[in-house]
Amino acid sequence: MKKALCKNAMAFVLFLLPLTMMAQGTIQGVVSDETDVPVPGASVVVKGTTNGTISDFDGNYSITVDSFPATLVFSSLGYSTKEVNVTGAATLNMTLEEAVTGLDEVVVTGLASSVKRENLANAVATVSAEELVGTTGQTTVDGALYGKVPGLNITSSSGAPGGGFALRLRGISSINGNNQPLIIVDGVYYNNVEIPSGLRFASGANRGNEENSGNRLADLDPNDIQNIEILKGSSAAAIYGQRGGAGVILITTKRGQAGKTKISFSQDVGSNTIANPLGMRPWTADSVESTFNAAERAKYEATIAERGSLYDYEDIIYGETGFITDTRLNATGGNEKTRFYVGGGFRDEEGIIKNTGFDRLTLRANIEHKISDVFDFTSSTNFTRSNSSRSFTGNENEGGLSYGYTLAFTRPWNNQFPDANGNYPNNPNYSGNPIFVRDNALNEDSNNRVVQGLTLNTKILTTEKNRVKLVLSGGLDYLANETYVYVPETHQAQIGNQGGFIAQGKNNFTQFNGQAIMLWNHDAMDGDLGLTTQAGITYLSQESNLVNSRGALLAAGQTNVDNSVNQEIDQFLSSEEDFGYFGQLEANYKDQFIATVGYRLDKSSRNGDPNKFYGFPKASLAVNVANLDFWNVEAISQLKFRTAYGETGSPANFGATFTSLGASNIGGAIGQSVLGSKGDPDVEPETSAEFEIGFDLGLFDNKVAFEATYYNKAVNDLILTRALPASSGFTSETTNLGDLVNKGVELALRADVVDNENFRWNTGLNWFRNRSEITRLEVPAFPQPGAGFGLGLGTIFIQEGKPVNQFATNLDLDGDGVTEPTQIGVAEPDYQMGWNNNITLFKQFDVSFIFQMKVGGDNLNLSKFLTDLGGVTPDLETADGQARLSIPANGQRFLEPAGYLRLREAAIYYRLPSATIATIFGDTVEAVKLGFSGRNLFLVTDYTSYDPEVSVNGSSGLSTGIEVTPFPSSRQVYFHLNVNF
């Protein structure tokens, strides 16, 4: 019997063996996009198993399937996922289509991990290269983000070439501290500093943030960027600890593609013109006499008789047409071992004021190399040389330099042009001649910058269920900045005063960051549960050395500090170090339930105790209802509910922990004495704790996608300054004294409205609002230093129970003759929205445009305060204008609504047909695209100055809603030529 059983068993095995062999097979082929370009790194997985592979640099893949029939799942970043049924060994080439709604794109969720957007538990915004620069030319990255991200408020501090922007994610995160998001470019912490030039010492401005400086994100060419991820709140940015308090912006630059080397050339040619000129008051002889006197009337009549018109100094100063060129050349290619992207660009942009402009030279080399099956590395190298000439705008105190001030008091019947000998007349009504300043004074800066990032990946373990990897990365950002301000001794305000002024700055910034991360991916429950665990350490070092050398009483015609009599040197040194540990665990059950928990411990030399660690937790949960087994509603292709909580921080400003010393003469010898402000050795970081909840909905195979998010972000332990009694020996102390909260809603709708062979229309709408409130204040309500000009003209006023950016002025509400601070408005808008559209006609024409709208919010128009004083405000010929002059000159008089509707971008492009290209160029040229575009093409607003987006205080602090004679914003139009070889 045993022999019979063995014989039968052997026969059964021999019978099954051929069947088993027939059930196994290999599927191979090439993965490419819609233009037949190979897609490297595409994932190919047998559905329902952990059996998978990825395509190589040429898009080739090969996978062994254990049994047929089977379903292969193809996916890659930026492309829609495809599923294909296979019944046996075969060659299967797959074409992936570009993702419309972005559900398949990969989003960073940790310092070394990522997740598909459809599984994301936070409202993380992404901006692709096409969205960023695909419509029109962009000077800076931050300016290119207008209207494209819900929850991102952008304020322009200057319309000068080279930018000047303040980015705020989900409201104000700090009153005295940092409100700009942390920016990371290819893993390198990117310095976005705003550098004062010393101009205020000539103009009489109060603070360095009033000097019309740009911020240094301008050094990054927007055309080098592949995509941007924006972690808007603490629930998403918690993994970045005490550097993520204001949100995080992750920028990835372009990478190489394997295959034949391809070269791309782009040329933009454009122009700058003033976007919204205010015009001149329509003077008559009678209005001149009634405003001034009979002598001025005589001058008016003489000018009219001599030249037939008045001098329109607004047009003379702001009316230049600036020429813009932007030239770019790059190459990309590689093989199965190495991929590269190298390129360079040069942008030269003239401003709307003569002798102003901005130029930027960029060189980039991004290299990816596979050393072996265990090691691979990525190197990202960028060199930038940029120069700006920003001239003189913004606030001053009788410096005779700022154009807005001089134009407010320059009467258009007075000739300010030089005579035949080159002598400029004095301005009879103000301390400066704007034509002299334009032609002879200088306000410039230059920057040399090197940004280097390097990442080494080591695959320690790779099995069917476990993959362990060590990631070592580091980055260097070195910036050498030089500033130069020169006012000749012959300038009107310099005669008898400073006798000429010069300031030269030498400023160096060095940032180094490094991190070591262990990443473990584990497949459990037969592949139904995926676990991603990461843990590591991070280090950040920042050093700065700012030297400003100034001189007054210049020798005639000399332009350096050596040839001045009264010389002064300021130097500011800072050194900061951060160190942290972090760990995070992500669990994904069948793409149905995705949970994340994490914790970060940070210490910083800017905290009161530099060795004390502060903890920042995070947790999130996403439930993909449409992926659950019972779901069978075909019209709803995605339904996800998500919630998240996280904490981030922001250390005290450098120097807040100690009491500064100043130089003094003691007994005839130089000594040191304590300055008025007392440091707090126990100051702790500000902490943001955010709760977020929302849902994502996809309809009709995700042709329509909707996202909704609500957040509540509490910022605790605000670092503020309070007055001290004189008996303490100090005047003030900076320490933790308050709390605030931001609450908001963000909505986003994207839709493929029409998609056929000859007409495609994709549209997107984003809407958001934020409400802030000071919830605790351990000091009396106060006007925020550096955010206004006192309660007389109006200022941002910090008060418990009120919005953080309310405007207040002194008013007598009871009629008893006693004034008190009173809220008159709020800079915070009711809501903001952006509407973008992309249309393709007959596969050859691309039409795109972006509208941006802001509803509500107020500005203090202090430019009108000056023009009213000078009698030149355009509306003073009207009854309303004259009535305004009878109102007391306080903040209430100059508060204006700052809402608007703007056509931010618009373009039309034409792609030459392939047959036409082949006829003209043969095989040399692959694609040619021509186009016209524009930025800021029109503006509808009730605001009566140049632009409702204003900030006299630069990008620092609260920095919004207060205008004092800015550099006017411009309208730009471009012609584009793009050629791919």
UniProtKB/TrEMBL annotation:
Endpoints of the signal sequence: 1-23
Pfam families on file: CarbopepD_reg_2, Plug, TonB_dep_Rec_b-barrel
Keyword annotations: Cell outer membrane, Membrane, Signal, TonB box, Transmembrane, Transmembrane beta strand, Transport
Localization per Swiss-Prot or TrEMBL: Cell outer membrane
Its membrane topology: Multi-pass membrane protein
Keyword Transport: yes
Domain TonB-dependent receptor plug: 118-248
Residue ranges of every copy of the TonB-dependent receptor-like beta-barrel domain listed in the record: 395-773
Primary location group: membrane
Family: Belongs to the TonB-dependent receptor family.
Full protein name: SusC/RagA family TonB-linked outer membrane protein
Organism, as annotated: Maribacter chungangensis
Organism lineage: Bacteria, Pseudomonadati, Bacteroidota, Flavobacteriia, Flavobacteriales
